[in-house]
Design a protein that fits this description.
alpha/beta, nine-stranded mixed sheet, 20 helices, 20 strands
Amino acid sequence: MMSQKPENRTPLCIAPFVSLAIWADGESVICCEDKGPQAGRLGLVDDVSGLVNSEKMRTARRQFLRGEVPEGCRACLDEATRQPTVHNYYQERFHWPDVAEAYDETTGDVSRTQYLLIALSNLCTYSCRMCFDKLSTRLSSDRHRMLGVEPVGYRRNDIDKVISFIRANPIRIVTFHGGNPINEPRFLDVLNELSDDVSVEIISNGSTLTSGKVDIRAHLSRFERVHFNISLDGTRRTTEYVRMHSDFDDVFRHFTEIKALSNTTVNLHNTITNLNLFDLPAYYTMVLTGKFADADSISSYIATVPAVHRISTLPPELRQLARERIEGFLHELGDAGGTTPSDAFDFKANNARAYARNVLHRIDSVPYSQDLFAEFLELTRRTDAFYGVDPLPEYSDYLAAGAAGASGSSGPPPARPSPSPSSSSASQPVAPDEVAAKGVVVSHTAPEPAESPQALAGPCPYIGQRGFRVSECIFAWNAAYFQNCTAVTVRIQLNPDAGITAATMATLRTTWETGIENKWSNHFVCAGPYGSSVITVDVQWVTSSPHHVVRVRQGPAQTDMTTWDTSDTGDVAAHEFGHMLGNPDEYSDTRCPNRNPVNTGTVMDNNVGSALQRHVNRICVSAPLTAEAFSIGLDLI
């Protein structure tokens, strides 16, 4: 049966005919602005085409062709009447006559996909206050310690399915989302599958240009077009307040370095919330005529979730203050009023006007909710205390202890004078003298009541049993140990084969324990804002309740984590012990051509080498490690 082509009509939005978006948890939607139900999950389909032609995608195509708007798309199309949105992006880059042939109107299927937005994993080193736990490993870990929420852990999509999909489709544009996609160790595996004429877009927090210890710039230089989208939520003070663990100067340095590539354009994107609202005029001034004026374009998104960070949470006096600042900015910019030109993406000033006017529209979009504002204040108070930073000046009076309206009281918020326009550039937040190395998620004990100053002398990431599944290449195993802060105990039960004497076993236990502890103990630290704590390792030979059971046979023979032999040295035991902590091999293996890192010269490569800090970074993670394919992940950020 021949497929049926659509009649001569153009859909309201072209997105579901050309694209698919996949988030870090595998959930797929039409595009990054789709607020409707998911189209499916990557882990539940044999290949990505099962998501492209899911029932949701087919229904959305039929609706758009009938002139109807799917529920999850209403907000985007409504916003498009006031400012540039993702809808405009699709309309400008794709044309219906080039797409229609791939659409079968009878089935609702499309045979070719031209645009893929993919989050390879949720690896991210920032804890942005308005973000979601599932999108950032660092945020998830911080919120576990701060709020007691269940940690998400490291999650990586099935990248081999993504690569197969790229090979099977005429992909024109790929947008890498996150987490921060560059942090994902397999980022370059996907990037290197793309043809030179593909437009590569990277949505990044600007924290790094290195993936798996490889500078990505050389890999980007072969493409005809690269578009870097750097998230920046304000001037220095506001950005570092909203995006915890961020470094404004690092972002600017990476912005400058990526701008130097001849094939690359850079967009600056901010998510507008009640946290950076008052800094908005200073931010737009900075990206139009100031420090980041070399940006090729700008974009803004007014957050609707989480609800506590909507700009409409503000009480009347703060709404008025925000309006005055933004109206003053528009006056200085020479606001011409009216609608935004259709080509507004090419004009930064026009964009700024449109976004600012839309903010004014949204500030009073719903009645003031005192309960929601009280919830915002309580969350902000706890977050500020956790990170040890001062509040933004606009909220300092509201966050003062006992202030009315700060904890859900029934009275109105306190009357307060409006801060001067310059107050948005207040002094830097109080930052700790010591910070963790990149990739080390450490304990950030809040400066809450402590029995003595010594209680805050060093971090205590975790107390309890550790147990998690590790997967690398064709290998998989269970890592396990007990942790009391940074003191690690591993109980190992040795079961010798018949014929191996007690005297031999006694000698081997001494050799192996010495080799392991010399390699792994008292060399590394977990560093946090209240000090550092040395990681110690204690190997205990037990006959019951072991973390690991090891067969001991007559050597020489082949050794692995659960089978040792009488010829094994202390160095060999230290290598196998590294697996017990969760580390994969790092030597070349023809069965694992994509192994990374490889040939490192470390204990996980050649036995005799040293262990490195990255090999023990999991010990510094405060959250329980999930029983899934943890693999290399955080270690390589």
